[in-house]
Amino acid sequence: MTEEESGTPHWLFGDQLGPHFVDPARGGPHRDAPLVMIESRGVFRRRRFHRAKAHLILSAMRHRAAELGDRVRYVKADTYRQGLREAVGEGRVTVHHPTSHAADAFVRSLPSVRVLPARGFLVTHDEFRTWADGRGTKHLRQEDFYRWVRGTHDLLMEGDGPAGGRWNLDHDNRQPPPRGSTDLGVPAPYHPRESEIDDEVRSDLDRWARDGDVRFVGEDAPRRFPATRREALAGLRRFVEHRLATFGAYEDAMLAGDTTMSHSLLSSSLNLGLLDPAECVERAEARWRSGDVPLNSAEGFVRQIAGWREFVWHVYWYFGTRYRESNALRHHEPLPAWFTELSSDATDANCLSHVLDQVRTTGWTHHIPRLMVLGSLSLQRGWDPRAVTDWFHRSFVDGYDWVMVPNVVGMSQYADGGRMTTKPYTSGGAYIDRMSDFCGPCRYKPSVRVGEDACPFTAGYWNLLHRHRDRFEHNARMTRAVRGLDRLTDLDELLEQERHRED
Q: Which stretches of sequence are listed as region Disordered (predicted)?
């Protein structure tokens, strides 16, 4: 690197906040390069974000700027373009590959910006493209990718094979919650302490809202998620030492009184760039090899990070900008206001009310409420998948474009017609009843399809199968379920009921 290049400023986006984004040994800028950070209020004007999400992002950015001190030029502006002009004028700047198509197109449109390779993931774009192109099929499967990553990165391996003889221990990780328990009885997740920077952020957000400049949804309670590298490491340490052991068995279970179960709550830290995925999976593997956690828990966590998270990131870029427009099921219904406003008291369905309340108060739920309550409902009601994707993006503290487009369009809403999953992820009330304690006190009965006691998920499930019978009956994983329609003596009544459902 020339002396001129060593002095080129480097631009850090608000989700590139960890040390690996400024490490010259890992493809980062020169150690003497000045840094630029831009806080764009326009980002919060364009979308109505969850208040807790806006707080977390701004808190993390301002904490990082305080850590970097005089090395960083922190600019508050209406737009990135304006902020960049204020920070460096017409001068050159480098930036790591951004995490959204829009941001990537923007930085590449600026002649003064040089884009460096992406950071924060185990697999490079070129490596994934080589793997995917070599599949010889239009369908990409996470399980195949996961096994490839395990082997190439030597994760939970014994020689050339998987530790324990099986690649995937998901079958061992589907236990319902302990009967009669209101919580798992595990140590609580790490909770950070707020600082003066958080007070400043909250004051700014209050002012923006009062001025009508920006609108939010949800509540801004005391910050629940890490905003600094130190806090993120504390969260990782608490998880692997005190919560990972019980994670595997109950990772798909739900309890009304235990919203976090044994989940790590590290997704926002990873997506802000405060943690590197390699350090997360390596610590989990180390705990298994030391005999402190069972293999199914370590493997389940590694699969979430090195399997699913990596896969989603690369699918987002590999399938391109048009992927978000996918709507194979031709669902176009708008999201109802009670859902977009996170109004938990607008529904009598106990599971949905609890999950919406958690999203409203925290901006987070774990993956099963997202997929099998919120996502399943959206799919069954035929809501527009692009609107559902936008809702998830705005409403969750860990929601980013690259996260939600594949997760919602591909997995949750099956809008891509099966390009990344083999079947729609939806169910009747029986699944929710088996995997949670929501159904006991609910006014609806999971076994009832028609009438005042009919579970909206049970009725909605059969309604969805009927609506798309021609498509689903040719899916090997859906054939048996579709044939079940022929055994329903009350199908006509069910379909009429669902045509008039309002909640």
A: 161-197
User: Across the strands, what pairs with 251?
Assistant: none
Candidates 445, 442, 221, 263; CA nearest to 370 is: 263
316 pLDDT more than 70: yes
Integer CA distances (angstroms), 64 to 59, 303, 458, in order: 8, 29, 47
Distance separating alpha carbons of residues 473 and 492, to the nearest angstrom: 19
Please give the Cα distance from 63 to 127 (Å, whole number). Answer: 34
What pLDDT is stored for residue 500 in this prediction?
87
| Measured distance CA(6)–CA(25) in Å, rounded | 14
In three-state form (DSSP H/G/I as H, E/B as E, the rest C), the secondary structure along 236-248 is: HHHHHHHCHHHCC
CA–CA–CA angle 108, 112, 118 (5° rounding): 45
Residue range 110-139: average pLDDT?
A: 92
Put simply, whether the predicted model's pTM sits higher than 0.70 gets the answer: yes
Helix, strand or coil, per DSSP, at residue 306: helix
| pLDDT, position 1 | 44
Q: Tokens standing for 142? A: 């996470």
Identify the burial level of 441 via C-beta atoms within 10 angstroms of its C-beta, where 0-12 means exposed, 13-18 middle and 19 or more buried: exposed
Burial class (CB in 10 A: 0-12, 13-18, 19+), 299: buried
3-state secondary structure of 118: coil
Fill in the DSSP letter of residue 175.
P
Which residue reads 């076994």 in tokens? Answer: 447
Written as six digits, the tokens of 407 are 């997760």
| Identity at 157, one-letter amino acid code | M
Please give the angle made by the CA atoms of 172, 283 and 118, to the nearest 5 degrees. Answer: 105
The type of residue at 480 is: R
Phi, psi of 115 (to 5 degrees): -90, 120
Q: What are phi and psi of 390, to 5 degrees?
A: -65, -40
For tokens 């808190």, the residue is: 59
Angle CA 156–161–166, to nearest 5 = 75
Question: How confident is the model at residue 39, as a pLDDT?
Answer: 97
pLDDT digits (tens, 9 = 90+) for 247-259: 999 999 999 999 9
Which of 426, 451, 456 has the alpha carbon at shortest distance from 439?
456
Burial of residue 111 (number of CB atoms within 10 Å: 0-12, 13-18, 19+) = exposed
Query: Do 336 and 147 form a contact (C-beta atoms < 8 A)?
Result: no
Quote the CA–CA distance of 4 and 374 in Å, as a whole number: 52
Q: What is the crossing angle of helices 229-242 and 277-289, to 10°?
A: 30
pLDDT in tens, 389-418: 999 999 999 999 999 999 999 999 999 999
- For residue 394, give both structure tokens: 């705005």
DSSP 181-229: -SS--PPPPP-PPP-HHHHHHHHHHHHHHHTTS---BS---S--S--SH
Rg of the chain on CA atoms, in Å = 23
Element (H, E) at 115: strand 113-116
User: Token pair of 28, please?
Assistant: 């980062």
Question: Three-state DSSP class for 467?
Answer: helix
